[in-house]
Specification:
Layout (H helix, E strand, L loop, with lengths): L5 H13 L3 H10 L5 H30 L8 H38 L6 H13 L31
Helix pairs in contact: 1-3, 1-4, 3-4
Length: about 160
């Protein structure tokens, strides 16, 4: 079972946020640039991520070849192993940075899109608007100008004489 790469994660994020397969965006991007600047930014960042994802694969393969079982590297081989390991760490870090950038672009798109509010929230806002009062924060006391409701048994009015 193959593991999910950062490129796969970025592709899934973009497809979920914009609701279309990535191939459709790539075809449209070749014909004409997108009018959505966030999509354009996400696609450019995904392209850079594809390059670094390829570099990760190349460095991993090279490192596995240099450190295979029963292989004894010569003196210069140790330097190549070290350089490859450093290059692999740099490529991983770049990939994580690109993935984080795409995540931020998707979050910015979600923040800019008007949210569909839950029906209970809309009903509560409508009730407050009809009453002419503003809601109070939890734990805050209402201002003295608003009437207070008394809860409890009502006092009998008949039969009480002094």
């Amino acid at each position: 079972m193959p593991t999910t790469t950062m490129l796969d994660q970025a592709t899934a994020m973009i497809e979920n946020a914009w609701g279309q397969p990535i191939e459709a965006f790539e075809v449209l991007g070749v014909r004409r640039p997108s009018d959505d600047p966030l999509l354009r930014c996400a696609m450019h960042t995904r392209t850079a991520l594809a390059i670094t994802d390829n570099a990760v694969t190349v460095h991993q393969d090279r490192l596995h070849a240099l450190s295979r079982h029963e292989y004894v590297p010569d003196f210069y081989g140790l330097d190549r192993i070290t350089e490859t390991a450093v290059s692999l760490r740099v490529a991983h870090t770049e990939s994580r940075a690109y993935l984080q950038a795409i995540r931020r672009v998707v979050e910015a798109r979600e923040a800019a899109a008007p949210e569909v509010e839950a029906p209970t929230v809309r009903l509560a806002q409508a009730a407050v608007a009809r009453s002419g009062q503003t809601p109070h924060a939890p734990g805050a006391t209402p201002d003295p100008s608003s009437p207070t409701a008394v809860v409890g048994p009502s006092a009998p009015t008949a039969g009480l004489r002094r």
